[in-house]
Amino acid sequence: MSIPDPSSLSYHNARLLQESIKSKDLLAGKSVHARIIKYGLRFSVILLNNLMNFYSRTGCFCDARSLFDEMPEKTIFTWNTLLSAYSRQGKMAEATEIFHKIPNRDSVSWSTVITGYNQMGRFESAVKVFDKMTKERVTPTQYTITSVLASCAAIEALDIGRKVHSFAVKFGLSSYVSVVNSLLNMYAKSGDPMMTRVIFDRMEYRNTSSLNVMISLHMQHGRVDLARGQFERMSERDIVTWNSMIAGFNQHGYNLDALCTFGNMLRDSLLIPDKFTLINALSACANLEMLKLGKQIHARIVSTNFDTYGPVGNALISMYAKSGGVQIAQKIVDQTGLSCLDVIGFTCLLDGYVKLGDLKPARQIFDSLRDRDVVAWTAMIVGYLQNGLNNDALELFRLMVREGPKPNNFTLAAMLSVSSSLTSLNHGKQIHASAIRTGQASLVSVNNALITMYARAGSINCARKVFNQVHCFRDIVSWTSMIMALAQHGLGEEALKHFEKLLAAGIKPDHITYVGVLSACTHVGLVDQGQRYYNMMKDFHKIEPTLSHYALMVDLLGRAGLVQEAYDFIEKMPIKPDVITWGSLLSSCKVYKNVELGKVAAERLLLIDPDNSGAYSALANLYSVCGKWEDAAKIRKLMKDGGVKKEQGISWVQIKNKVHVFGAEDGLHPQKDEIYKMITKIWEDIKKMGFVPDTESVLHDLEEEVKEQMLRHHSEKLAIAFALTSTPENTTLRIMKNLRVCNDCHSAIKFISKLSGREIIVRDATRFHHFKDGLCSCRDYW
C-alpha cells in the first residue's frame, strides 16, 4: 500500500478546511482534524494554522486556544489568528495580552487590535493604538486606515482624522476606494462638509458607499431635497441607502416620507429590513401616532423571527407608548425584561402613563432600572411635574442629589418649574445654588427657568438680576420670560420697553411674546398701545391670534370700562370664544355694573361650561352690586339646585418650608386664637389710620356689623396676621391666593404694609400686588 505524499496531503486538508470555514460545517472540519492526527501531520505549521483558523471562525474558541497552546512552532500568522479570534469575540483584554506577547508584530497584528476596538465601540482606544503603531514605524494597510477613520468619524475627531488622511497619502493608500469612502465618511460625520465635497468631486470611481455618504451628509445638514435627488439618481441601492433616507426623513420631521420610503423598499427591492430600518420606521409611526401601521410592522417583525431585544424592542415600546397602546408597550417590557429597556423607551413609556394620569407603573419601572442616567431621572421628574405632582418631583430630585447622577440643565429647568408651581422661593433659591455649584447657571435654558421661577415666587428683582446677567446670550424665551414676569407684577411700561428692545435687537417675537405684551397693557390700562401691538402682531409679524390673544383684548377693553367695545370685539372674533373670553367680559360687567351684558356673558359662558361656579357667582355678585337682591338669590338657588359648588377662596403662606393654608373664617389652624387676636388688633389700628371697611364688597343683604366681621376674617388677612406673628421684623411677606383679591382686602393690606413697615407681596389669580408704605404697585388698577 502506497503512503500519500505529506505535502499533497497538507495541501488537500488545508483546502478542505477552507471549504469547511465557508460552509461553516463543523463536522467536516473535525474530520479533517482527525485525518491530520492519523497521518501524522501535526508538525505542519501551515496546516495547523488553517485548523486553528477554522476553529476560531466556527465558534470553537476553546479548541482554537488548545491547539495554539500545543503547537510546537508558531508563526506570525498563528499569533494573528488567535488575536483575531479574541478581537472578534470582543475580548479585548485577552486580545491585548496576546498582542503584547507577539514576538514580531506586523501591520496585521496592529490592524486586528484597532479593528477590534472599533467594533466594540471603544473608538478612543482604537485611535491610541494607531498612534503607537505610527510611532513604532509600522506601515499601515488600507484596512488599518479604514478602521481608524471609522473610529475618528464615530467620535468626530476631525483633527486626528486629518492626520490619518496624511498617512494614507504618505503610504500611497489614498487611491483605494475603501479608504476614499472612509475619508468621505469621516469628514462628513466630523463636521467638514467642504472637504467632504472636495473628496467626492475628485473621486474617479464612486460606488454605492460613496453616494450613501453624500445622502447622509445632505440629511445631516437638513438638505432633504438634495438627499432625495441623490437617492433618485442612484441605479443601485443597498440597505444603507434606504436606511439613510428613512432615518433622514424621520429626523427632520418628514415622517410620512419615511414611511413611504420604507414601503417602497419592501415593494421595489429584494433587501430585507435590518434593525436600523425597523427602528426608524417605528419611530415615524410613533411620531404620527399611527398605531395600526405600527402593529403591521410589529407583525412583520414577529413573522420573520426578528430579535426584539435591545433597540428594536425599545422602538416598539416607544411606538406603542406614543400611539395610545401603553398596555401593549408594558407587555413588551414584561416579555423582554427591564434590562433591555433603554432611556428613550422608558421616557416614551413614562409619557404614555402621564397621558393616562397613572404614574405608579412608571415609577415602578424607574425604580427597577439598573442604570438610571440623568435622562431617566429627569424624565421621571418631568412626568411628576406634568401631572401636577410637584411634591413627588421635589422628593425625587432630593433623592437624585443624594444618590443619583449630577443634575443637568434640563433637570434644573424642570425643578425650577416645580418651584414656580409651588411658588416656593426657598426651594427655587436652593436649586439656583445647585446650578451655580454644578456650573449650569450660565446656560440659557436654566436662566430662562430662573427668571420664571423668581417671578412666580414674587421676587421680580431677582428675576431682573438673572435677566441682566445673560445679556449676551438672550434668546426669544429669555425676552418673553422677562416680559411676562414684568406684566404679572404690574410693571407694564417696563415690560413694553423690553419688548421694544427685543424688536431693536432684530429678534422676531412669537405668539407667546405677544401674550406677555398684551397682558402688560391689560394690567396697566394701556388700551391704545395694546390695540397697536395687537395690530402689529397680525399685520406686521403675521401671527394669527389665538384664544389667549382674543381674551386679553377683551380684558384690556373691559378693564378700561369699554364694556360694549369688548362685547363687539367678541362678536367679530373669527373663532368661537372660550370660557376665559366670556369670563373676562363678565368680570368687567361686574366692576362697571353692566347687568345686561353681564347676563349675556354669563349665559354664553354657561352654555360652554354648565358647571362653571365662577359664572354663577359673578352674575349673582353683579346683581347684588346693583341692589338686585332677589335676582342674586335666584342665581344662588339655581347653583344649589344644580349641585354647583362655589370655589372657596383660600390663601397660603410658606413659613420655614411649611405651607400654611387659610380659608375665610378659618378655625382649623392650631394657632387660631393668636391669629384672630392679631387680626382684631390690626383691624382696630388701621381704622384709626383712616381705613374704612368696604362693606359693599360683602354681596349679601346683612347688617353692617356682620359684614365688617366677615371682611375682617378674609383668608388673605388671616394669612398676613399669621405671617406677622411668625416672622422677624422687616421680613417681606409673600401671600398666595387662588382668587382675585377683593377691594376691601386690597385697601386693608395697603394700610397694613404701612402699619407694620413690611413689604407684602400678594399673588392673586391674575397678577402680583406689591404693597409697601401704604401703596400698591398696581396703582389700584387691577
In words, what does this structure look like?
- With 782 residues, the chain is mainly alpha-helical.
- The chain is 68% helix and 4% strand.
- The protein is built from 42 helices and 6 strands.
- It has a 6-stranded mixed β-sheet with strand order 2-1-3-4-5-6, covered by helices on one side.
- Helix 42 links the parallel strand 3 and strand 4.
- The longest helix has 18 residues.
- The N and C termini lie far apart (118 Å).
User: What's the end-to-end separation, in Å?
Assistant: 118 Å
- Rg (CA only): 37 Å
Q: SS-based structural class?
A: mainly alpha
Strand order of the largest sheet: 2-1-3-4-5-6
**Percent helix:** 55-70%
User: Roughly what is the average pLDDT, rounded to an integer?
Assistant: 88
Low-confidence stretches: none
The quaternary organization reads as single chain
Determine the number of helices (DSSP H or I, runs of at least 4 residues).
Answer: 42
Strand content: under 5%
Apparent shape: elongated
The largest sheet is: 6 strands, mixed
What is the tally of beta strands? 6
Family: Belongs to the PPR family. PCMP-H subfamily.
Keywords: Repeat
Protein name: DYW domain-containing protein
InterPro entries: DYW_dom (IPR032867), E_motif (IPR046848), PPR_At4g14850-like_plant (IPR046960), PPR_rpt (IPR002885), TPR-like_helical_dom_sf (IPR011990)
Which key terms come to mind for this protein?
782 residues, six-stranded mixed sheet, 42 helices, elongated
